[in-house]
Specification:
By secondary structure, this protein is mainly alpha-helical. The protein has 3 helices and no strands.
């Protein structure tokens, strides 16, 4: 199926929104894991060896969550780059037609 219309301005706006949401997501994840890391030592809702072991274990997952945020940002960059490529193609076609 051929694309007959593409609003590249909307694509760039969508990419910007996705990127902003990914940044917010990363901030929330970082804040959550920082809070969890403080449980056995500072906030002390649960203390002791088992608490320390549990929170050390779940902190290993932080990288996976942050990786998701990075992948979402890559996707938003792909959308933006696609909009740029479409604009370039249209510009080149218009230039060729005017000759």
């Amino acid at each position: 199926m051929a694309i007959t219309h593409c609003n590249t301005t909307d694509l760039r706006d969508i990419a910007t929104d996705i990127n902003s949401l990914a940044n917010e997501y990363e901030q929330v994840i970082t804040k959550m894991f920082n809070r969890l890391a403080n449980v056995p030592y500072e906030t002390k809702e649960w203390i002791g060896g088992q608490s320390e072991k549990y929170f050390r274990t779940i902190l290993m997952d932080k990288g996976e969550f942050l990786s998701l945020g990075e992948n979402i940002k890559k996707y938003s960059n792909l959308i933006k780059n696609s909009a740029d490529a479409i604009d370039t193609c249209i510009k080149n076609n218009n230039t060729m037609e005017s000759r």
